[in-house]
């Protein structure tokens, strides 16, 4: 089994596209409007309408951005201690440089921190969708 993609329900598709393209270098590979019985069954909504954009980065990680047109998306503030999946991690080469170059564009929980075992430098960042990304730099 292998991970196929990560699906993210977005607040604003255009803002999210800019974030993932401009900051993390994801490229759009497919976009679609979806509705009908299959989507209704899969997502457990009647008359569901969504826009999806599939993106990929140079390491092969795939994201699917999903904008709900019907029913309307429920906005919530994600917390790091919520039950279930709260984040995914992306590896960066120089976390200090990434932080310095993006601290005005991204809400970070803190500055880069070195792990207790001294193997990685890490920090959490918020996406436009209020999800979390853990950014990791290997130190050894």
Description:
There is one protein chain. With 140 residues, the chain is an alpha+beta fold. The chain contains three helices and nine strands; from the N terminus they run βαβαβββαββββ. The longest helix is centred in the N-terminal third of the chain and has 11 residues, at 13-23.
Q: Tell me the radius of gyration.
A: 16 Å
Q: What do the pLDDT scores average to?
A: 92
Give the helix tally.
3
Low-confidence stretches: none
Reported for the largest beta sheet, the result is: 5 strands, mixed
| Structural class by helix and strand composition | alpha+beta
Q: Spell out the helices and strands N to C.
A: EHEHEEEHEEEE
User: Portion of residues in helices?
Assistant: 10-25%
C-alpha geometry = elongated
Strand content: 35-45%
C-alpha termini separation: 29 Å
State the total count of DSSP E strands.
Answer: 9
């Amino acid at each position: 089994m292998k991970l196929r993609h990560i699906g993210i329900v977005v607040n604003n598709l255009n803002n999210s596209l800019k974030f993932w393209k401009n900051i993390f270098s994801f490229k759009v590979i497919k976009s679609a409007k979806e509705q009908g019985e299959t989507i209704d069954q899969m997502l457990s909504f009647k008359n569901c309408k969504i826009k999806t954009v599939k993106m990929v980065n140079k390491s092969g990680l795939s994201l699917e951005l999903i904008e709900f047109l019907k029913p309307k998306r429920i906005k919530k503030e994600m917390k790091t201690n919520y039950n279930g999946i709260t984040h995914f991690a992306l590896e960066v080469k120089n976390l200090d440089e990434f932080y310095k170059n993006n601290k005005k564009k991204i809400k970070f929980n803190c500055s880069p921190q070195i792990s207790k075992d001294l193997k990685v430098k890490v920090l959490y960042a918020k996406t436009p969708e209020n999800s979390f990304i853990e950014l990791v730099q290997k130190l050894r």
